TrEMBL record:
One of its GO terms (molecular function) is 3-oxoacyl-[acyl-carrier-protein] reductase (NADPH) activity. The keyword Secreted does not apply. The gene is fabG_14. InterPro entries: NAD(P)-bd_dom_sf, SDR_fam. PANTHER family: BLR4183 PROTEIN (PTHR42760:SF53), SHORT-CHAIN DEHYDROGENASES/REDUCTASES FAMILY MEMBER (PTHR42760). It comes from the Bacteria. Gene3D superfamilies: NAD(P)-binding Rossmann-like Domain (3.40.50.720). Belongs to the short-chain dehydrogenases/reductases (SDR) family. One of its GO terms (biological process) is fatty acid elongation. The keyword Oxidoreductase applies. This is 3-oxoacyl-[acyl-carrier-protein] reductase FabG. Keywords: Oxidoreductase. Pfam families: adh_short_C2 (PF13561). It comes from Actinomadura rubteroloni.
Length: 252
């Protein structure tokens, strides 16, 4: 039985990944923070298509709550699937904010650290005993941490995403003894809610970004969701320790 935990599944890339994983036959636990309605929408869409899904709350920036979350997850696994383990974990929760280096306050730097790096690190550590041998972990990184995506104003955000890419490789090495594959996916500019619905609020930025993208458009959440679902699946059984940029050729 395949069961995937998707953190940040209430909208955008996480929602798309949850739906695509369900289409490939996985049960889904959709994790949300503040957007309960979005998580319930994700669950409803999976159930309408014949899949099984449950929504659970978690603030990835509050690591002190992780042990209690694990207990809630274990209870959900038992009640919904009669299971004690999961096969997949997607660390996708996050937020984006532009801040020039000289203007970045310590509070923002700390928040990026808690949500984008410390959270995935400690949550994966907390849930590791529940992940089946031969399972898969996918982390959502960012091409802002790659040469192709370097943009002024993202030093704090991208530094944490760069750390997540390094963590991905170390997890792949250390967890390989259990057959657990670990990869990350680096989106380019993608139409999601992460930057406070920037594409909806400022549609004039879309054309210039599309012009810088080899495939001629801005990314959509499902473009990334399909890649994540693939990496979770057995079809990607020989892929590990990779950071895969999925940006349509941004700045190519």
């Amino acid at each position: 039985m395949s069961i995937t935990v998707v953190v940040g599944a209430s909208s955008g890339i996480g929602q798309a990944a949850a739906i695509r994983a369900a289409e490939l036959g996985s049960g889904v636990i959709a994790i949300y923070n503040s957007n309960k309605d979005g998580a319930e929408e994700t669950v409803a869409r999976i159930r309408e298509a014949g899949g099984t899904a449950v929504a659970l709350p978690l603030d990835v920036g509050a690591s002190e709550t992780f042990p209690a979350f694990r207990q809630s997850l274990e209870q959900t696994l038992t009640e919904t699937w009669g299971a004690t383990t999961i096969t997949g974990l997607v660390n996708n929760a996050g937020f984006g904010q532009m801040s020039m280096f000289e203007d970045t306050p310590e509070e923002l730097l700390d928040r990026f650290y808690r949500v984008l790096l410390k959270g995935p690190y400690l949550l994966t550590q907390t849930l590791l005993p529940l992940i089946q041998d031969g399972g898969a972990i996918v982390n959502t990184s960012s091409n802002s941490a790659l040469p192709s995506g370097l943009e002024a104003g993202y030093s704090a955000y991208a530094s944490m995403k760069g750390g997540l890419i390094v963590l991905t490789k170390y997890l792949a090495k250390e967890l390989s003894t259990r057959g657990i594959r670990v990869n990350s996916v680096a989106p380019g500019p993608t139409r999601t809610r992460i930057a406070d619905d920037a594409f909806e609020k400022y549609p004039e930025v879309i054309a210039p970004i599309a012009a810088r993208t080899a495939l001629g458009r801005v990314g959509e959440a499902d473009d990334l969701g399909t890649v994540i679902a693939f990496l979770l699946s057995d079809e990607a059984r020989w892929i590990t320790a990779q950071d895969i940029e999925a940006s349509g050729g941004f700045n190519l």
